Amino acid sequence: MKKQGIWLLAAVMILIAVSPLHLTNEYLRSNTFDRVEIQQGEDIQSVARRYTRDETRVRELQQAIIDVNDLNPDGSGLRQGQELLIPLLQAPETQVAEK
To answer: pLDDT per residue over 34-73, tens digit each?
Structure first.
């Protein structure tokens, strides 16, 4: 019984250690962020489009912005002047910042 508990604990520790490596959204693995202020009329999609033009990346970045900033699941409720953290990818050629 005690041996099973040790194996279970070891398995959980390994999963915790490697789980970020299994995320499919690269933005959620980022440790580099930009800070932006929401302008009147902006939404999550328009903010994401500042950083990439690739449609798949736009959707991934939108979800990452929502997750990182603990926003409503649909990204609604942004206020003018609100600051958001935007996760950045390491490869600069995949991003287009149009601040």
So the answer is: 999 999 999 999 999 999 989 989 999 999 999 999 999 9
pTM for the structure as a whole: 0.69
SS3 per-residue string spanning 38-61: CCCCCCHHHHHHCCCCCHHHHHHH
Select 2-94's CATH number: 3.30.450.20, 3.40.50.2000, 3.40.50.700, 3.10.350.10. Answer: 3.10.350.10
**71-74 contacts at long range (C-beta below 8 A, 24 or more positions apart):** 71/44
| Average pLDDT in the chain | 83
Cα→Cα distances 7→36, 64, 70, 97, Å:
45, 33, 34, 47
Helix (H) or strand (E) run with residue 83 in it: strand 83-87
